[in-house]
Design brief:
Blueprint lengths: L8 H16 L20 H9 L2 H12 L17 H16 L6 E10 L9 E10 L4 E11 L17 H18 L6 E8 L2 H4 L1 H12 L3 E8 L16 E5 L9 H10 L6 H12 L2 H4 L2 E5 L12 H5 L4 E5 L13 E3 L2 E3 L8 H20 L8 E3 L7 E4 L8 E10 L7 E6 L3 E4 L6 E9 L11 E3 L1
Parallel strand pairs: 3-4, 3-5, 5-8, 6-7, 11-17
Antiparallel strand pairs: 1-2, 2-4, 6-8, 9-10, 11-12, 12-15, 13-14, 13-16
Helix pairs in contact: 3-5, 3-12, 4-5, 5-12
Length: 465
């Protein structure tokens, strides 16, 4: 049998198998022009210009200023102008408003506050405030992408709200990434809406992020992706080894929000490695790799590290795709530690242990991912793989997106043992396509393409009888 493009099933099977075999010995996506293999998306000049504006001196200044507030513990003072979480909150708010003035009215900044009643690690009613800067999209403003860092900090005792807790790496570094992104993107126009959030209450139980995520859920916001940057400040591990050009991206497989019915479907098709968060992580590798940012994005197939959690989890709990950026190997003497010297060894989360050019490179990874998400069409909705009949062909259907710059779609596939999508076929501006390959043997997906050649994350199709 010959498929509509004139390629025989035998040829498709051979090229798919050959690509999977090559991928097994490769550490990344193949270079452009290699037969049968996908290449990373090229970075347009506009994106490269944006990345050049990210300044490690500014990320350093942000980290040092936040650390200088002494402690930013959630339970610390909120009305001292020099010390405590209130002083940090007000400083972040002022800087974000300064950045917004360059946006021509497209960026708005709000202080999102609520009173958290007594709960685990919150002994008394406590005001928790997020600083949220929203850059409204021009043509698809209802489609939203969020990036966050948490500005609260802690000492060894999570309830100690008076001792110094500079929190340079955890997580002034993440806030520095978010603020630098807000600064450089405020002057740009994006198709979709971008949100830059500095949240509080993370160390006490992800309270600020949960409030932010719930606010989106209550107004049924179309949040298509969320990244948190938490502990992205150092390239040096506890043994002194350095890896200044790698950042980890934690992305869950089985969705946190999965219903029993969704679990049955996932088990039936083997979709454990194809959650929306995994597709988001693959997208980051596609658009923000070494050729664009100078960084390797190491995707870790876990929701987070052992015994730890981050601000992406409240978004996952509300069925939003989300993932966490973290430095490649941590030094636990400089996290969650009182500032002290023991036997000549310095403990504490101090700025002197940060690598500020590294923070700027992490910011470039985030910028490449967010800009590409916001400028490309959205992930296709309603992707289905038709399973009513026994056949060795695969028929896919999906809904057409509303984006004015939508050019069409691509069907992608890979071997079930492959981590990355390996093949793509342009199928035009349609909502249905048949591939002369068995759906039983490979995984399929669909992604949207703009007139400029920017591609969306992949939609993994559910079976439909």
């Amino acid at each position: 049998m010959v498929n509509p493009k004139g390629t025989s099933r035998r040829t498709l099977l051979a090229t798919t198998a050959a690509t999977a075999a090559a991928a097994a010995t490769s550490t990344g996506v193949a270079a452009a022009g290699e037969p049968g293999r996908l290449a990373p998306q090229p970075a347009p000049p506009e994106l490269r210009a944006l990345l050049r504006e990210i300044d490690h001196r500014r990320t350093e200044a942000t980290v040092r200023r936040l650390a200088a507030f002494g402690t930013r513990h959630t339970l610390s003072t909120q009305d001292d102008p020099e010390r405590g979480i209130g002083a940090a909150r007000d400083w972040i708010l002022a800087r974000m408003r300064e950045y917004a003035r360059a946006s021509g009215g497209r960026m708005t900044v709000e202080l999102q506050s609520y009173v958290q009643q007594p709960a685990p690690r919150i002994p008394v009613p406590t005001r928790i405030s997020n600083v949220v800067a929203t850059l409204r999209g021009t043509t698809s403003p209802d489609r939203v992408y969020v990036v966050s860092g948490h500005y609260d900090s802690r000492a060894s005792d999570v309830m100690d709200h008076t001792s110094d807790a500079p929190g340079a790496d955890d997580d002034a570094s993440g806030v520095a990434v978010v603020m630098e992104l807000a600064r450089v993107m405020a002057t740009r126009r994006t198709s979709a809406t971008l949100v830059f959030a500095a949240v509080a209450g993370e160390e006490q139980g992800l309270y600020g992020a949960a409030h932010l995520a719930q606010s989106y859920r209550e107004r049924q916001a179309d949040v298509r992706g969320m990244f948190t940057n938490d502990i992205v400040g150092s390239s040096t591990a506890d043994d002194g080894s350095r890896d200044p050009h790698t950042v980890r991206l934690f992305a869950e497989g089985v969705p946190t929000s999965e219903t029993p019915q969704e679990g049955e479907v996932r088990r039936s098709v083997g979709g454990e490695n194809d959650s929306p968060s995994r597709q988001l992580a693959r997208f980051v590798q596609d658009v923000a790799g070494p050729g664009v940012t100078g960084m390797k994005v190491r995707v870790v197939y876990r929701r987070d590290r052992y015994l730890r959690g981050g601000d992406h989890i409240p978004f996952l709990e509300r069925a939003y795709p989300a993932a966490r950026f973290t430095e490649p190997a941590e030094d636990f003497a400089h996290q969650h530690q009182d500032v002290r010297v023991v036997d000549g060894k310095q403990y504490g989360d101090l700025p002197e242990f940060c690598d500020f050019p590294y923070i700027a490179r992490v910011a470039r990874v985030n910028a490449a991912a967010l800009w590409s998400l916001a400028q490309a069409p959205g992930t296709p909705r309603g992707a289905k793989i038709l399973t009513a009949a026994l056949t060795n062909e695969t028929e896919l259907v999906w809904e057409r997106g509303p984006e004015p710059d939508l050019a069409g779609y691509e069907v992608v596939w890979r071997e079930t043992t492959a981590a990355q999508w390996t093949h793509a076929r342009p199928v035009g501006d349609t909502t249905r396509h048949t591939v002369d390959l068995s759906k039983d043997n490979v995984f399929f997906g669909v992604r949207a393409v703009s007139h400029a050649g920017l591609r969306s994350p992949v939609a993994f199709p559910a079976p439909q009888r």
